[in-house]
Amino acid sequence: MRPLFEDPPAVIADEIRRVVPPVEEILIQVKSDLGCDGRFGEPWVIVTPRRFALIDDGEEPLHVPLNAIRKARAEAIVGGGCLIIERIGEPAIQIPYTNSLVQTFGEVAVNLNLLLEGKPPVLPTQFDATRCRRCGRLLPERGGICPACIRKIDTLLRLLSYLRPYAKMAIALVVLTLASTLLDLAPPLIIRQIIDDVLTQRGEIGLLFQFAGALLGINILAWCAGVVRRWLNNSVGCRAAADLRMDLYRALQFLPLRFHEKRKVGSLVSRMTNDAELVEDYLSFDLPFILSNSLLFFGILLLLFVMNWRLACLVVLPIPVIVLVGSLLWRRLEGTWRRWSVRWSRLSSHLNESIKGIRVVKAFTREDYEARRFDSRNLLVMQASIAAERTCLVFFLVSNFVMSFGLFLVWYFGGLQIIRQELTLGALTAFIAYLWMVYQPLRWFGDFYSFMVRAFAGAERIFEVIDALPEPFKNPDAAPLAEMRGKVVFEDVAFGYDPGKPVLQGINFEVEAGEMIGLVGRSGAGKSTLINLVCRFYDITRGSIRVDDRDLRDIRLEDLRGSIGMVAQQTLLFSGTVAMNIAYGRPNASTAEIIEAARAANAHEFIIRLPDGYDYQVGENGNKFSGGEKQRIAIARAILQNPRILILDEATSSLDTATEHRIQEAIAHLVKGRTTFAIAHRLSTLRSADRLFLLDRGKIVETGTHAELIARRGQFYRLVQAYRKTVASIDIEDRKVPA
Ligand code: ADP
């Protein structure tokens, strides 16, 4: 299948034949889902090596030779995008489309530009699906799973597969459940014997003792079975849920950055807490309840028909009504609980965001505003809960009401049979006892079903994460990298975070092992993106990146990232000791090695002044340290890891001269002999770099040493001049401040 080549209807095919000569190969043939006036329509875009054509229903076809086109762009607009064809000396052609075609038209623009530059087009062979192939609904994420098409039975089977490691316990549980069910069936039969054989006939006391003793014995056995069953329930359910949580956590760790960027932290956390707890409760309580009560339900029905089929028919009379009402309400319940789940995850996202950003909230005195926002989200969760609970209540009330008819019928017709001496009192009593045993679970099925729906919705949200495609971290096809030297080559690299919106284009460079490169450019030029590509946080759209003459995709990600060290602008410290944080990349490093790294990073002095020295607890996010201290710990971390490629993302915030000096010293120590990419803001870094790459709008526009670029008096020179002017004006402002 070629995603940029669709089959047109006959009318359009005729039009295409009219404007495209048969000798010209059609490279692209796609339709938009919006008319050129923004209304519904299906204009077709045709591209051949020589022309661009637009065929819109009811309009005269438009065709333009490629040499009359300057450029093609795909621009984002609200709800979708617009392909803009800039013509020479003529107004631009605009073709709008909805969000589901952003990738398609992004590729049309890219390939059209390649043709305009005289290069061969690189037509994609496959796109990630944006709509479900089965039901056609828009997928929550590209290439993801359609929540509407997940079958409940598949979710159940998958949940059951988590019981497999505890199969012995689970089988024991089923056997015990069967035994308990049989035991539960016995007492009404014995009661019948007591009434009919002893009480109504003034029978022997010995017989009464035997029957009462049997009742006691059965109750004791049932009690014992119940204790063991609960114990097993609990341990099987909790273990299976713990395994599920572990799978979810591992999946989260190995998922690509793209996945994490699309999700809010709170929504992922709510899967780990809320959804996993629902599944745990389902496996521990709900599933065993459904199993035992289903057995009991069918067991008793059978028994009732054997005992007295005419009365049994009366017993089952209300059941179809209950099932009908249930199935109508349950469908509604499913939607409500799914809504509850989504709203709950939004609430949890909000909580996470506002607690993490509490400093900002306080600084802007937005406490009340945040509380109001929380309130409105909380209200939505409450409304969903109430709607669901009400649905359950309706079921409960309706089923109770209908059941009372069953009870009336059995008492009345059963009583008639006794009067006509067709039935004994004992038999009727046993019948009524069974009747309650049939109705009781039916009444609670509503509640348990509602619980099951919630648990399934939770399980689906968990499986969605587990099933998302992980990074090829341990790709078996990728060869291990024995020893990296650190040569990095970019060849015609293009990349965009969103398909069809390139951020980097035509990036070409060769960096020798041990070279230090300073990346400079305005904010948003693509410096961080370039670094992300070296670490393979994202895969490139076009071109190739080679490390030590091997394509990045052929190197095991584990080895690649293991050889890259990073000192980021925002240093993240994990809760634990200072030593543990320094040894994060090499947990088995000795204390001596950790201290040596800290010394080299100029961090040793301040660490030993801490109350517990290297054993000092850094606290969450390392909040107890200053920016400069955190940075030096990060440098020590990188020194200890001893990477071949080093990524330095310099902090833009200015530090005091002494700290700055110490950090510079530490960095100088760190970069020695390693291939370094530094996003450089400080002049000292710019000077010490072997070469500078100046990026502008996703392209490298100037390269050379600091002196060369200054001498060239180009864009870099202007950037430095502007920077100096800003610094000078700050200096003057500073001097104006009265002492
Ligand atoms: P720089 O580091 O030079 O400031 P970046 O590489 O961070 O620039 O950003 C380059 C462009 O890519 C910007 O337009 C930015 O908005 C966009 N961008 C950066 N990160 C992402 C992302 N995760 N998702 C989408 N767009 C992004």
Structural class: alpha+beta
Helical coverage, percent range: 55-70%
Name the average pLDDT. Answer: 84
Distance between the termini: 74 Å
Poorly predicted regions are none
From the alpha carbons, calculate the radius of gyration and give it in angstroms. 36 Å
Bound molecules: adenosine-5'-diphosphate
Question: How is the largest sheet built, in terms of strand order?
Answer: 13-14-15-10-16-17
Largest sheet: 6 strands, mixed
What fraction of residues sit in β-strands?
Answer: 5-15%
Shape: globular
Give the strand tally: 17
Q: Count of helical segments?
A: 22
Descriptive tags:
17 strands, alpha+beta, binds adenosine-5'-diphosphate, four-stranded antiparallel β-sheet, 739 residues
